[in-house]
Amino acid sequence: MFHHWSIATRLFVANLLFVLVLATLAGGVAFVDARDRIYEEAGRRMQGIAAAIADNPLVLQAADSPDPSALLQPYAASVMANAGADFITIMAPDRTRWTHANPAEIGRPYIGTIEPALRGETYTEITSGTLGPSVRTIVPVKDDGGAVRALVSAGVTVRTVDVAVEGRLAGIAAIALVLVLGGSLAAWLLGRYLRSVTRGWGPEQLAQLFAYYESVLHSVREGVILIDTNGKAVMYNDQAAELLGLDPVDVDRSTQDAPLLSELPLEGSLRKLFESGRTAHDEIHLTGSRVLVVNQAPAVGPSNMRGRKGAVFGTVATIRDRTEIESLGTELQTMKTLSDALRAQTHEHANRLHTIVSLMEIGRSEQALEFATKDLELSQQLTDDLLGTVDEPVLSALVMGKAAEAHERGVELVLHTSGEGGLGALEVQDLVTILGNLLDNAIDAASDGSLPRKVELEVSAGDGAVAFTVTDSGPGLDPESVDRIFQYGFSTKDAASDAGTGSGRRGVGLALVRQAVQRLGGKMSISNGRNGNRAEPEAGSGNVGSLGGARFRVLLPAPDSKEDTE
User: What b/e string do you get for 331-365 counting C-beta neighbours within 10 Å, with b at 16 or more?
Assistant: First the structure.
């Protein structure tokens, strides 16, 4: 039965029992204290009455008379009526009563303790007499010589004192009732709050839920990170730690010990997303060598009884690793780039072949031979220059194909090579990604620009590094867009121009180029041609061409130099 009770119900019942016990104990203590105080007050009042009677000369005068009762009984009756005492007994030192509330008891011995009074002391006690239990005080009556000539006892019955005690029970009961009602109200309010926070679950259900929560966090293949409103990473699972490069989190760590987002080694775009707390759906973020898909939503508490939306406790972000899928997409794009280059090269070759055949058909064999020779020399020179600098056949085929594609679009691709080296140990997919996207962007920019439409590619090898510099004759880069040009999804092209290319991947190329450069341990810089405005000066310098468009320079360490440094 108790296992089905919520925390709020258990707290209310426990608090109610506690308040009842506390009120009972407090009421009992208050009752005993009130009773003791009333008995003490009754004793002090009887002491005052008895002392006042003992100081009256009439008592000594009556003690010397042959019939003390005749003088003292009317006096004692008058004092009892006026002072509110239940009895006043004046007696001889041998206990013989001279007065009593019941005249029939006169002459009989007094019942009670008189020894302290015979010694000259005032003594108060609770004892039973002829009128039942009573609170009484006995005072000695002394003559001028200090001898005890009589004793005076004044008292009230316990029944009378208890009536006064019962008069205070109502106040004590009222205070106890206020304690019970106040404690119950406080417990009910607290229980209502806990019920809204815990959704009516009991401790066993919460423990089971926490076990499920812990199991889910460590079993899912997606990264999960919980961020509170203070910008602290309250919790993240093992997958999130692996994807974001974080230290494993201790599940027993309190929220106060959780690190701030500014203390975690997060990429700039991810940090901004987590700190903003905004809702995100399948956003792509690049972190080093990974491509991550991030979803983020606020963590909202339960709605209250009036249907109002609950409080926002922070945000929950889920992270998926899309690196492998993106790698496959990049490889597919690489193959498409090479196939497009081969298609353009084939188309160009077909045009030239048709030209040669037509010249031969009209009897111009010498011109046909001269045309073929020059075309072979140009193609061979391009191949020899590229292979002599970068010993990578795939890159050579890519550049030759891009040259044919550029020519097909009315753009001249000029190649400048210098030095000797090889990139055979580097991943060819990364190299094709870098050079292919840079040339695509340059050809697009040059084809949309004014005459002359031209792209320059400079390949230089030496000093343990290989540099690619791509410059176009386009309009150049807007300085305001330089900071965002490498963001995944940002593009300077409009949708119409992008649709014309058929790529459907706007804002992807340069982001992948930067990721590939970082993966290869290289550097990248951007500037505009003639004015030389540099966006990232740390990447080094290169030969500045004559074109006034955008210039992208990539510096990659040669494989041998990387192995030496390691």
Answer: eebbeebbebbbebbeebeeeeeeebeebeeeeee
Distance set, CA 112 to CA 53, 93, 127, 159, 554 (Å):
19, 13, 7, 18, 118
Domain that holds residue 300: 222-321
In this structure, what CATH number is given to the domain that contains residue 314? 3.30.450.20
Does residue 312 share a domain with residue 433? no
**E strands of 160-245, at which residues?**
223-228, 233-236
Q: What would the two tokens of residue 484 be?
A: 């965002």
- Inside any domain, residue 73: yes
What average pLDDT does this structure show over 136-162? 86
pLDDT in tens, 353-373: 888 888 788 888 888 787 777
Q: Can you tell me whether residue 188 is helix, strand or coil?
A: helix
Question: Do both 261 and 345 map to the same domain?
Answer: no
**Are residue 305 and residue 339 in the same domain, yes or no?**
no
pTM value is 0.48
Domain membership flag for residue 213: no
Collapsed DSSP state (helix, strand, coil) of residue 145? coil
Burial grade of 407 (CB within 10 A; 0-12, 13-18, 19 or more)? middle
